[in-house]
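Run log // design_07
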């Protein structure tokens, strides 16, 4: 029996949020006009716009952001660094958040706000905070079973692939060590193409 190789089980396709649902969440759902609402919205924006992992974003320091060059330096698995470009709109939102954060730090007499994200007490947010925030807000727009920061990472990669991004670029943005992990997202792209073909081709 030790010489018998068991058949390989196929990897599950990444679960992701539809583009229309992400547009609904970021463009139309109202977040509370308080510090928690502002933190939650920027968290989701950054997860979706950068594809970073949960621990990477929660531990992100102000010094890792270059607002002039519009880039973010991320420390990934194995202390491997990668650079992620940021849109001018997202940079503006980050700068506004940093400015408003200073008043929170002053009010709570916190000496340092090294991490980008802090709670109402001016302390760095933790992993569970970010996870629960994402789950709460995704529940407003989607019925998929999994609602987590990793699903937003999957959504980031899938939407890039669906819009023609090349595999190597997506691999670099995600911080994958090999193409094998990134290739999972091509399957979602093929499914999307299959739907388009079935819907629009005149013959079955």
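design_07 sequence
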């Amino acid at each position: 029996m030790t010489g018998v190789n068991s058949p390989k089980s196929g990897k599950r396709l990444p679960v992701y949020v539809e583009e229309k649902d992400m547009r609904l969440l970021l463009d139309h759902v109202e977040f509370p006009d308080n510090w928690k609402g502002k933190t939650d919205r920027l968290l989701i924006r950054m997860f979706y716009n950068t594809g970073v992992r949960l621990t990477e974003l929660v531990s992100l320091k102000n010094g890792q952001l270059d607002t002039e060059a519009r880039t973010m330096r991320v420390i990934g698995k194995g202390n491997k660094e990668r650079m992620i470009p940021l849109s001018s709109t997202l940079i503006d939102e980050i700068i506004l958040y940093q400015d408003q954060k200073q008043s929170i730090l002053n009010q709570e007499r916190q000496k340092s706000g090294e991490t980008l994200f802090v709670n109402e007490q001016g302390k760095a947010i933790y992993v569970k905070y970010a996870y629960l925030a994402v789950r709460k807000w995704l529940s407003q727009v989607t019925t998929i079973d999994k609602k987590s920061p990793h699903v937003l990472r999957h959504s980031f990669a899938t939407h890039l692939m669906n819009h023609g991004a090349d595999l190597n670029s997506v691999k670099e943005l995600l911080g994958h060590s090999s193409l094998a992990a990134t290739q999972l997202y091509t399957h979602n792209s093929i499914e999307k193409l299959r739907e388009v073909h079935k819907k629009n081709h005149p013959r079955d």
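The radius of gyration is 19 Å.
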